[in-house]
Design goal:
single chain; two-stranded antiparallel ribbon; globular; mainly alpha; 6 helices; Cytochrome Bc1 Complex, Chain D, domain 2
Amino acid sequence: MNARVVIIIGAVLLSFGAQRCNGQEVSRSSAWTRTTISGQGQPKGYVQFENYCSMCHGPGPGQPGTMALQAKYKGAEPALLADRTDLNGAVIKAYVRNGISIMPIFRKTEISDANLDLIAEYLTRNNKK
């Protein structure tokens, strides 16, 4: 691992803050997070997904999580997590807490259980009931 990567990872891990969205405080644990996200009119958990996950699992070029899933599924499943209809909340939580492939682990101090529950709820919203 080169020094530049170590510096970037260190900066990400040291970047902590909070914001409020529609009266709900959203903890932000990454320098990668986007600017303030409006959750108005969006499904429950959208803000948390945007803050914690979209920098790797969002649309567009250079999103490592999306690119990895695109390579893995080769079009059989959508590469964008937000478009999936087959995700399981327990599996999402296990991947976030334990990591998988290129995805690192996220401790409870980085993504709280409450925020992880909201992310899982958002990502399973398209599942057939």
